[in-house]
Design goal:
- Helix content is 1%, strand content 41%.
- It is mainly beta and 453 residues long.
- It has a single domain, classed as Methylamine Dehydrogenase, Chain H.
- Strand 8 and strand 9 form a beta hairpin.
Length: 453
């Protein structure tokens, strides 16, 4: 696996997912909340109508709030509360502080673009008022040196907070997991492990399932350090833990509810594994992506589709409900090896799966068969997409570039660019959607976008 590790030159961001199992307050409408990475079903798809598709630095901007520090966590929204995390870089770390030594192929591994370990960092959890953008509270979750490096283009505040409508959970990898109530009171905190991420930063996010919070902790270039664990969400106490034969990854497990059972599907270089989320018992496995597992899986039409984009481009569609080793069986529905990006996740919207390259070039696929509907769908301007994942609503797909330009694509079997919008600052985080509004986190500000009047 050495060639895959050495090839990791781009930032690791947040692309975690919580698909189902979030406690829902019956008084809160399904479309009023975006409580997790990629929304209430973890798909990146909103059922709302009449959302804005035109904006700029002033047009349709309801409010714009300056944020302290930097972060790549997506906004999580419940009712009139918006939650984010951020990293504020401070003075030098103590000279005695040393990062872990990373070994690859029996040799010490050093990356030329490692950063962050020589500074003191303040990690904050922030709560804003959804309607006004006012910061309601901000709490210091951790302050001090970091355990491991991060990529210079990455960020320690990458995992997206999760909320169940009563508590919000912020995760910072080796620097801990924190549970707050909606008033900002710290309920509990927990040090999970000295998590070594090959010096690239943490990318996974927690999954809420019934009374538990689940974390996929894939680490180092070896396969004997990784595990997946479930914690009691009210106390932080460990409920179960299972070792994983997987190298470091930056993806997050996908929780899928079917009439037959619940499945917790995990991506990885070596294996794709599904677990019973209640116990951690393995349900099935298949050979892995043999590449950096960063993108979140998507689900639909009885299939879960997992992908990677660098250095190899691998897409696998697996039928749900299997058991044991699925390699060589009809449970592997189809495979493909083009069109994917390094970091952003694909999106499955209606009858079509959309893959996106690092340049924003779209490939439209029939998810049931793997047949290519179209490929080579380009945005008008040459740009890069190393951050935000697509979102979709009302027959449209939104692609947001690192430059902060969002392109509106017509969903369906023919590629059509309907428009483009810019906020005038870089954007590395996926759009959140709630209550008729888009929430876009830029490099320095959080924007609330809505159709005015």
């Amino acid at each position: 696996m050495k060639r895959y590790v050495i090839g990791l030159f781009l930032p690791v961001l947040v692309f975690g997912i919580w698909l189902a199992g979030v406690d829902v307050d019956p008084a809160a409408g399904a479309t009023s909340n975006w409580p997790q990475w990629r929304g209430p079903e973890g798909s990146g798809v909103s059922e709302e109508k009449n959302l804005p598709i035109e904006w700029n630095e002033t047009k349709n901007v309801v409010w714009k709030t300056a944020l302290p520090g930097k972060g790549f966590s997506q906004p999580s929204i419940w009712g009139n509360r918006v939650f984010l995390t951020t990293d504020i870089e401070g003075g030098p770390a103590p000279e005695s502080h040393k990062p872990p030594v990373h070994m690859v192929g029996g040799q010490v591994f050093k990356h030329p673009e490692w950063d962050g370990i020589d500074k003191i960092h303040t990690f904050k959890t922030i709560c804003l008022d959804r309607d006004t953008g006012k910061i309601v509270w901000e709490k210091v979750s951790y302050e001090g040196p970091t355990f491991d490096y991060r990529h210079k283009r990455g960020n320690y505040a990458a995992p997206t907070p999760a909320t169940d409508g009563k508590y919000v959970y912020s995760y910072f990898g080796a620097e801990g997991l924190y549970c707050y109530d909606f008033n900002g009171k710290l309920i509990w905190k927990k040090h999970i492990d000295n998590i070594a991420t090959l010096g690239m930063g943490v990318g996974t996010s927690p999954v809420l399932y019934n009374s538990m919070l689940i974390l996929q902790v894939d680490q180092t270039a070896a396969t004997d350090k990784s595990f997946i664990t479930a914690l009691d969400k009210k106390t932080g106490k460990e409920v179960w833990r299972v070792a994983r034969p997987i190298q470091v990854s930056w993806t997050t497990p996908l929780l899928i509810k079917t009439p037959q059972r619940d499945e917790l599907v995990t991506s990885g270089n070596e294996f794709l594994i599904s677990y019973d989320p209640a116990t951690g018992k393995e349900l099935w496995r298949a050979s892995g992506l043999k590449s950096h597992a960063i993108a979140t899986p998507v689900v639909g039409h009885g299939l879960v589709i997992l992908s990677s984009g660098y250095p190899s481009k691998v897409i696998k569609a697996i039928k749900l409900g299997g058991s044991g080793n699925l390699d060589g069986t009809d449970k592997i529905a189809w495979q493909y090896n083009k069109g994917t990006s390094y970091v952003p996740s694909p999106i499955l919207y209606g009858d079509y799966l959309y893959l996106m390259s690092d340049a924003g070039i779209l490939t439209c696929v029939n998810p049931k068969t793997g047949e290519i509907v179209y490929e080579g769908g380009r945005v008008p301007v040459a740009t890069k997409f190393y951050g935000a994942s697509p979102v979709a609503f009302d027959g449209k797909i939104l692609l947001t570039s690192d430059d902060g330009d969002t392109y509106v694509i017509k969903a369906g079997p023919k590629h059509e660019v309907m428009g483009s919008n810019s906020l005038g600052e870089p954007v590395r985080t996926s759009i959140a959607i709630a209550d008729g509004k888009l929430f876009i986190r830029g490099d320095k500000h959080l924007y609330c976008i809505a159709n005015k009047g």
